[in-house]
Amino acid sequence: MNIAIIGKGKVGSALGAKFAAACHAVVYGSRTPDALAGTSNQADAVRAADVIITAIPGTAVIPTLEAIGEDVLADKIVLDVSAAMTADWALVHPNDSVARQVQARFPRARVVKSLNTMNYSVMVDPLTSLSQATVFVSGDSQDAKGTVNELLADLGWLPEMILDLGGVDTAKGTEHLAPLFLSTFTALQTMRFNFTVSRDSNERSVA
Ligand SMILES: NC(=O)c1ccc[n+]([C@@H]2O[C@H](COP(=O)([O-])OP(=O)(O)OC[C@H]3O[C@@H](n4cnc5c(N)ncnc54)[C@H](OP(=O)(O)O)[C@@H]3O)[C@@H](O)[C@H]2O)c1
Q: Which UniProt keywords apply (predicted)?
């Protein structure tokens, strides 16, 4: 698969290394392309991609995609892993999500939200030392979510760890875990944790 990662920071680098190791063709887009650093101009990086990963601040996602161009994004999968927080760690969209806004602004792209509820070290290594792990997936296109599930498998996520929440509207719930993520980090003093859904295996109905 051709994967363009916009942003070669902590998340972009970690995901890119793992996808390259799984034999995907990975290119990185940067605002300041640098051949020595392995980054291209953002629009060039995205042009041949099947999947675009937005590993940049949530507030920068729409302006960055607008600069790349609506036509370039048509039919492509946009895997949005971003969080949109203010400088003092408040939600930028307390009644909405970046992913829903991206889908509304670029209706020909297929937006999937995932991997945004954990530290980058857990994104690419969910099995080591975590007793349980859940990765949430939100998006309107079932095909696009199927492709993202394959990429999640390449990162080490087992099928039973992947929870499809439904359409892109459900991304609001996972984006709004960000404040809980920060207070959990403060309490535990480690980023090596994961929010997990623990399901009753007896399936009793509860009124
Ligand atoms: N770190 C985590 O564990 C984690 C976990 C879950 C979600 N996230 C989310 O994932 C995204 C990336 O996080 P990160 O930790 O990888 O951040 P990072 O290390 O700071 O890297 C972000 C990259 O975004 C680009 N960037 C910064 N400001 C930008 C702007 N205004 N417009 C366009 N591009 C900009 C930069 O690339 P260039 O300068 O090369 O353009 C930078 O390398 C964020 O939305 C973050 O909230 C992070």
A: Oxidoreductase
